[in-house]
Amino acid sequence: MNSISLFCNKKSIFLKACVTLLSEFFGFDTSGNSTMDLDFKLTYSRAGVSLNSIDHLLQMIKANKFQHYDLGHNKNLQKYGRPKPPEYDLRKVTSPVVLYYSKNDRVVDSGTIHKLISVLPNVYQTIMIPHNKFGHIDYAFNSNAKTLVFDSVINIARQFRIAPIHQQYGYYYY
C-alpha cells in the first residue's frame, strides 16, 4: 500500500482531509465521486506518471509558462543553448484542437484556456463542462465524466474520422 492509499483510504481517519485537499488543489466534485473507492482510484490512476513528469508540471506552474523541462543552468545551456528552457511554440500545433474546461478546475482555469485560444492556430471548439463543481481531477474520477465529457469527445472524434483532410492524405477509417 502506498502513502496515498494510507492517507486517502476509506478506513483512514484522514479521508475527510484527503478529500478536502483534492477539492482545494484540483477542484474535486464530491457529489460525483464516491469516497469509498477513492483510495483505489488514487492508487491506480498514477500508473505511468514519473517523478520527472510531476517535477516538470511543478516547474511550469512556478514559471507560469508552458516550457521544456528545466535541467538547471549548465545543462540547459548544453541542451537548449540558453540558460532557461524555451517555451513550447504552440503556433506549430496544426492539428484541430478541442479544449475542455470547467469552472471548478484549479489547475487549468478559464484564463489559461483563453490564452491557449489566442495562441493555438487551429482551435476547433472550446467546451465548458456544464457542471459547476466539476474540477481537474474529475476528468479521471467523476462518475458522470462519461456523460459530461467522454461522449462529446467520441462524437467530435467521429466527425474527424471522415473529414476530407484525412481522405486527401489517404487515411480511411471504417
TrEMBL record:
InterPro entries, sorted: AB_hydrolase_fold (IPR029058)
Domain of life according to the entry: Eukaryota
Name under which the protein is recorded: ACYPI008718 protein
SUPFAM superfamilies in UniProt: alpha/beta-Hydrolases (SSF53474)
Organism encoding this protein: Acyrthosiphon pisum
